[in-house]
Amino acid sequence: MSYEKGPELSGARLENADFSNARLHAPNFEGVKITDAWFHNADISGDLEGLRLNGVEVAPLVAAERARLFPELMQLQAADPRGLAEAWAMIEAKWQVTVSRARQLSEAALNDRVDDEWSFVETLRHLVLATDCWLRRMVTGIERPYHPWGLAGSWLSDPVAWGLEAGANPSLDEVLDVRRARMDEVEHTIAAVTPEELERVCVPPDAPGHPDREHTVLACLHVILNEEWEHHRYAVRDLEVLEDR
User: Which domains occur in the chain, in start order?
Assistant: First the structure.
């Protein structure tokens, strides 16, 4: 599949643009107004805060339906040490089952992309980076927190500045070793956290990285939990395709 950098359309108006069968990856639609559009058979995922369709704000409706389909989502919103520990235990259990399932496939399959999304191994590498960003950089305050195998989205234009190796190609077992260490760090942090610590405001170091603004410890842990849950859902979805192949 060939890739082309799209035109800069910030502030632009498109008349009769045809996006049929197109795929937009990580677009920013903040403040965009779309009128008279055709969304037949469209598949949209992302942050829906404030999104209105035909005059109806859909985010609460989507959130309610997701809560019905996935009751464990409520655990991810825990705001006390015990609830966070239970949420993390749920995440650990899900990944343990899924990694065991993935091991039934070949190494090549686990490096194969489904619908051009991240492969299983790449997903694990991204979660290493997510932990490095939100736990090691923010909560722990490590100035250079990144493992070189961490994988970011296309928005990161200069991974070298973070110390990431864009051309890295580690094996599943190698990534799982790093992943285990990072997950242990999350578990130990949550086990030791207090209600007062959850309210502490984390200031990011000056070194290049993400995030670049202040967040509370609780907010950082919530991001980690949500990243883990969402990417686990994507991984299971793609494993089903790989198994069918």
Answer: 75-244 (1.20.120.450)
